[in-house]
Backbone:
């Protein structure tokens, strides 16, 4: 991905929420690059913990106490450079491993554990505070950023798209990454994760009351980025 450069600087925090396949990662990174800001993928943190849970031999039926014990024992390192975001688990770069099917199938269940969410939300807030102190701006993507992690964010955006469009995007990403894919299976998984994420008791997926909801069904990445830049200008976040 080419780095977008310019004279404008993003100030403050932008919360980008929405379900999988809406283009959050791509547009969040590009917005951060355009504004010389930090970028944080909170979903990667949950995926890394899920990978650790799998490596510990635990599955969806594991006792919550065992999952929490794994989460508390791991060391996570999240890079916030939008040109080269990274996630390390106990010193190991696990970016490719956390995108595989086993992690994808289990991540919603691990993410629903209240103590896991509490631990990672605290860490996410620390990372954002550091980013704002160092660069002045941060674009943070996830599922509960505007509603829980950063309720005072300067701009909150909730991206959405139909399950069919999101499944097609996810399948295309998998093919590009060389991962085996089946569109029907991907669509079923998208719907399953939507149900799990939106109905969990702790921090369910939903748009914050003051978020700008943006349907990306018929929008290209460039078109979404253009709208985000316009919103940032309207809020006085780009100077």
Residues:
């Amino acid at each position: 991905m080419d780095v977008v450069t310019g004279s404008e600087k993003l100030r403050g925090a932008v919360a980008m929420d929405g379900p999988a396949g809406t283009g959050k990662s791509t547009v969040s990174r590009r917005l951060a690059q355009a504004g010389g800001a930090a970028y944080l993928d909170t979903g990667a943190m949950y995926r890394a913990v899920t990978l650790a849970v799998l490596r510990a031999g635990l599955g969806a039926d594991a006792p919550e106490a065992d999952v929490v014990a794994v989460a508390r024992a791991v060391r996570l390192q999240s890079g916030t450079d939008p040109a080269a975001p990274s996630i390390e688990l106990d010193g190991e770069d696990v970016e490719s491993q956390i995108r595989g099917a086993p992690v994808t199938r289990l991540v919603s269940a691990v993410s629903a554990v209240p103590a896991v969410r509490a631990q990672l939300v605290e860490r996410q807030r620390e990372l954002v505070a550091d980013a704002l102190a160092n660069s002045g701006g941060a674009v943070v993507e996830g599922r509960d950023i505007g509603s829980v992690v950063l309720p005072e964010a300067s701009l909150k955006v909730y991206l959405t798209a139909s399950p069919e469009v999101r499944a097609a995007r996810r399948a295309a990403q998998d093919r590009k990454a060389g991962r085996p894919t089946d569109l029907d299976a991907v669509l079923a998984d998208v719907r399953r994760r939507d149900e799990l994420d939106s109905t969990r008791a702790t921090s369910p997926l939903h748009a914050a009351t003051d978020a700008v909801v943006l349907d990306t069904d018929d929008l290209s990445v460039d078109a979404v980025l253009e709208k985000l830049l316009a919103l940032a200008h309207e809020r006085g976040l780009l100077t």
Summary: Residues 114-135 form the longest helix (22 residues). The chain has nine helices and eight strands.
